């Protein structure tokens, strides 16, 4: 005959199990403060009884009481008032125990000096513990203040960028209207200068907004991005804008999880930097290198320009750092934007350069977690005149 359990029995069993679970949680490490204090009080009472019950053998329980008291304070770090109260109680109890042995004649009077000595050692430990606690609290406050300042700075950059965009756009529209009416006159030249500066201000505002938002949780909207076709699309868009020898280097087939718009801004900023530091006939080469799964994928922008002086390499990604060397002025925020976007994706950006040998920027992105179908290196060059893609032999 099959035995079955009633719902009431099941409920009682569940209650017992839940009660045992709650007890296990209460007894689990770290202990609740009250439970730890009670356990120490019982333990100390047992050792105090041992001091009274075994004359001549009080040394071990005496020191065990003080050692356990020190360990308890290390876990609890009481406030000064309770600490002094418990210290006084421990001193009185242990002194009474040793004093009874002295009265019995089983211990010399000099043994009573152990009590103030142990108390002095305990107070020295308390002093160091309080100093450490104060230092940790100060460090925590400093960290909170730094976080608050960074948040305020980021919010200020976002607000300032938003507020600048509207008046800049309005001023740019009116300047463009004036430029149409002043073609061929000196005022026309002046209005073109105004247009150039307003466009520069607009780029600064837009890039400040991106950099400020880069640390926010909603900055990225990742999606699968095939970097080979993504790179070709960017190159086709840039080819007609400026007279350079545009080239495709190694173009591996790799798909990464990235924000297509933000990634496009970063690669555009690298190409803009390369254009600004090269001249007609110089080479700008764009490559995608993926060496294997679980390895970073590198988007590389290389140019044959004059290179970067060694003393500037350590500050090349700083905000508003621009070594223009006679070239048209940039915003000084392009490379800072690249770094912000790369790090938001969990990657980074690197630079290699030697004066007279050109520069090479690598945008590192977290690679896919599976095998990559790698294409053999196949350099290609875009003819800057007719725009055809020609494979090199």
What does it look like?
Among the domains are: 11-107; 223-391, Heat Shock Protein 90 (2-Layer Sandwich), CATH 3.30.565. Helices cover 57% and strands 12% of the residues. The chain is built from ten helices and nine strands. The protein has helices spanning 7-27, 33-53, 59-76, 80-104, 114-181, 186-213, 227-238, 260-276, 310-313, 334-344; strands spanning 223-226, 245-251, 255-258, 283-290, 297-303, 348-353, 359-365, 380-382, 389-391. It is elongated, with a radius of gyration of 37 Å.
SSE order and pairing:
Layout: H1 7-27, H2 33-53, H3 59-76, H4 80-104, H5 114-181, H6 186-213, E1 223-226, H7 227-238, E2 245-251, E3 255-258, H8 260-276, E4 283-290, E5 297-303, H9 310-313, H10 334-344, E6 348-353, E7 359-365, E8 380-382, E9 389-391
Parallel strand pairs: 2-4
Antiparallel strand pairs: 1-3, 2-8, 4-5, 5-7, 6-7, 8-9
Major pleated sheet: 7 strands, mixed
Secondary structure category: alpha+beta
CATH architectural label of the domain at 223-391? 2-Layer Sandwich
Q: How many separate helices?
A: 10
Order of strands, main sheet, comes to: 6-7-5-4-2-8-9
What's the level 1 CATH class of the domain at 223-391? Alpha Beta
Beta-strand content:
5-15%
How would you summarize this macromolecular structure in one to three sentences?
With 393 residues, the protein is of the alpha+beta class.
Provide tags for this entry:
393 residues; Heat Shock Protein 90; seven-stranded mixed sheet; disordered N terminus
